[in-house]
Structure formats: structure tokens, C-alpha cells
Amino acid sequence: MSGQPLNLSEQDSVLLDQVDRILSGRGSDDTSADPLGRFCAALAQATPSARDQFRRDLGSRLTAELARQVSPAEASTSLRSRSRWRRALVGTVAAALLLAVGLAVAVPSVRAGVSKFTHLLGAVLVNGPLDMHVTSTGYEPSPGVSIAEALRLAAFPVHLPTWLPDDMELSGAYAVTDTQKAPGSAGSANDVGFVYFVRGHPHEPPVVTLNLYPVDTDGGLIVDASKVKQITVKGKPALYAKGAYNERGVWDDSEYNYTLFWEEDGARYAMNAWRLPYDDMIRIAESMR
Amino acid sequence: VLSPAQERVLLEQARREPLAFRELYRAYFPRVYAYVSYRVACVEDVEDLTAQTFLKAIEELGRFSYRGEGSFAAWLFRIAHNSVSDFYRRGGKAHDGPAPLEAAYELPDQQPSPDDHVIRQQSFAHLRRLVGDLPLRQQEVITLRFFAGLRNKQIAGILGLDERSVAAHLCRGLRELQRRYAQLPEHAFGGVLE
């Protein structure tokens, strides 16, 4: 504390009561005749509005920062308990997660059946129509883990979006650890993924699924080369593919389904987005930090 | 607006699941932004300091201890207050340069018309300047009371004053503010504060 307390007059007490009433929303009527009271009421209303874009950007930035916080308590309990979103993840959005699971199994099994393919940025580009379906045999949804645990399990630095559309939020994560890997792959670096839902709709299919796996992963998502456009993300080469694998292991190239591939800091990123404009998809990728 | 009980639950939840903090951010963003807007002129600085406040809060949340209703708000605005103080210690400017502050404020959804919005933008800009010209203590007390929504006791804790001094600064500041406002040309506020 510093200095001597300042004196309060009776008028001060009246003014303080007025301010209390105004700020608690009870003071509009009895201040109408008093200029100082009216002024205080008007002052309380004179609040600036932030730019929507700033509010959204800061929200996304905070989400990314929060997701990086590894809480020891969270990490130790995450294998024992399943939160609401994790049940949703395993139950209703298994299809969206399919593309991240069992890559090491998928690609060798189809290599023999195609004559021309190119490995590029985490995708296996096949020239000509795919003459096989990636069977769902052996594909099980990866178990959900806490976001903190996914970050811990990743064998590479994880970049997450610092910008998201206003109605979207990071809702969960999963990891492909040794028990879910293809036979013989135990001990290899883990794949991880992050799922973004429309806020308030955690049981609907996610809008964006972000899958990360090490750059030295053998294989990748098998994509018809004719569905792919080469673009750049952060000034680096990227692939923008029309479609994604559905729950039956079939490439679904409907107009609402797109996948973006790129590499960063030792990780391959495959971002699948459903009903998201191209510009938003690119902006999300560009905002990854 | 969160009830005290909701706020407490969220704070406990945020310790276990950091993402729960996002609800606290949504609830407190308007107040933090308004408070900083009255303390700093340039909108880029306002945005930087608002961001700094929340990022610091995330970083320090593990050290926050709940001491009853209003303790989180007091803690958060102590961070905001310190951020503003550091800004000035580092040589930040109280008044903006050539770019008018009001130009950066967007039309809030509830505003009925662009004309009204312009008037309110101008009113805010004038009021901000009037508040910014008050003695520092009065600025601090008025902005923490009116825009951060803190009680005098909480403000006293942040500023290192006794509660009675906070009340006195508040009364003197408000009277002085109204006196200066009354001396402005009538058109300065477009009638909004009339």
C-alpha cells in the first residue's frame, strides 16, 4: 500500500453508489436527471469492438499454444480414460481417420498392382485409374489420445494451425502407436493426427483431419495423379488432391472432399477437409506454427 | 458471461485439460480488449497487448490460486495492467501517430447503421483521449472499474493502494472527465453522450 488514504465526501459516496448501480446494470433510471450519472452511464457503454479477424486469430493462436501444454496429469491418465470427444472419435468419425491408419500396410500391398507411381510429399501418385480399392481389412480407427499426448508421441516437431475459421476448433487427437502399426513396424516413429470439429458439434464428422507422419515413412496415401494439382504452401511444394478415402477404403472425390499434402520439419502433413473452401484450407496450412 | 460457479469449474478443468481455457478467453476477451483500448492508443499495440495478456495467462495459469469470486478477473487484469505498464516503460506511445485510432475498429453486429457506427467510433476516440489525458492513477482506476469491470477492492490489490484511495481516485477522475467532456464542442460526440 502507498500514501495516505484520500478522503471521501458524501457526494463521493453517492457517486460510488451510482457507479455500482450502473456497472451492475441497475442504474439507468435514477441517473437520468443527474449529468454526472448520465455521463457515467454513457461511459460504461462506450466500449470498442475488436476486429473479428483479430479475435479469431488470437483464439486460434491460443488454441495452438494450449494444445502444446503437456500436463503430466493428463498424460498419465489419458491411456486409462476416454473423454467425450475420444468416444466420438472412435465411434462416428472413424471414416475420416482411415487415411492416417495403416499406411505402411496399404502401400506395399498395392505396389505390385500398379505399373507407374510416384512418391511425392506423402502421396503415392498413380498414373491412370486406380484399379484397386484399399481394403478396409486391417484398418481400425486409431485410439484417441489427449492432444498433449499426441504431441508427446510424435517423433517430429508438430505444427498446428494458428488460424481456423471462426466456427471450428481443435477437438481431439489420435496416435498410431506400436499396437496399431503394421506387423514388423513396431518401434518405427508414430503417426499422429488432429481432428477439428465445428464448434458445438463434436459428434458430427470433423471438418478437418490433420494427419502427420514422418517423412521417411514407406508409402503414403494412394491417389490418382489426375486428381492432384501441384501448388505451394509456405513457399514449398504441396499437392492439392480432390478427394479422400472414405470408410470403405475407396477414394471419394466428391466435390466437398479435398486433401492437401506437404512436408515440414521432418513430417508429412495430409490435411483432409470436408466442405471447406480452398482459400480457408490454404490459410490453415499457411498458419501452421 | 460466465457465472462464478461456471468460472470456477472452467478454471479447475483448465488445469487438467488446458483447452478448457478457451471458454475463459471467450468470456474475458471483450473486457481485456476494452481495458487495453482505453490505456493504449494505437490499435496494433492494443492487439499486441491483448494477445500478450492471454498468452501470459496461459503460461502462468498453473500458478494461479483461486481465492473466491472475482479472483481470476483480478489476476487476469493484473497481467493486463502489467503488460500496459511494461509497454510504457519500454517507450510505448500514449497517443497514436497519424493513423486515426477509430479507423481500425470494425462495425459491431449490433450497430443499426454505418452512420451510427461512425459516430460511436468518434465518440470512443474522443473519450479515449480524454481518459488518456487524466492523471495516471485516475486513468488506471477508471479503466479497471469501467472496462475491466473490477471492484474497488480488486483494483486496490492490483495498484497497491487502499480501497478508499481507489474510490477517491475514481470519483475525482470521473468528475474531471465529465468536466473536460462538457468543455468539448457539442459535435465532438455526435450527440451520443448527450
Report the biggest beta sheet of chain A as strand number plus sense, adding barrel if it closes: 8 strands, antiparallel
- Derived structural class of chain A: alpha+beta
Cα-atom radius of gyration of chain A: 26 Å
Distance between the termini of chain A: 43 Å
Query: Which two protein chains have the largest interface (Cβ within 8 Å of the partner's Cβ), and how many residues from each?
Result: A-B, 47 and 53 residues
Rg value of chain B: 17 Å
Helix content of chain A: 25-40%
Secondary-structure-derived class of chain B: mainly alpha
List SSEs of chain B in N-to-C order.
HHHHHHHH
Indicate the proportion of strand residues of chain A.
Answer: 15-25%
Summarize model confidence as the mean pLDDT of chain B: 83
Which regions of chain B are unreliable across 5 or more consecutive residues at pLDDT < 50? Answer: 97-112, 190-194
Describe it for me?
- The complex is a heterodimer of chains A (289) and B (194).
- Chain A has nine helices and 13 strands.
- With 289 residues, chain A is of the alpha+beta class.
- Chain A has an eight-stranded antiparallel β-sheet. In chain A, strands 1-2-7 form a three-stranded mixed β-sheet, with helices on one face. In chain A, strands 10-11 form a two-stranded antiparallel ribbon.
- In chain A, strand 8 and strand 9 form a beta hairpin.
- In chain A, helix 1 (10-23) packs parallel to helix 2.
- Chain A is elongated, with a radius of gyration of 26 Å.
- Chain B has helices at 4-16, 21-39, 43-60, 71-89, 114-132, 136-146, 152-159, 163-183.
- In chain B, helix 2 packs antiparallel against helix 3 (43-60) and helix 4 packs across helix 7 (152-159).
- Chain B is globular.
- At the A-B interface, helix 1, helix 2 and helix 3 of A face helix 2, helix 3, helix 5 and helix 8 of B.
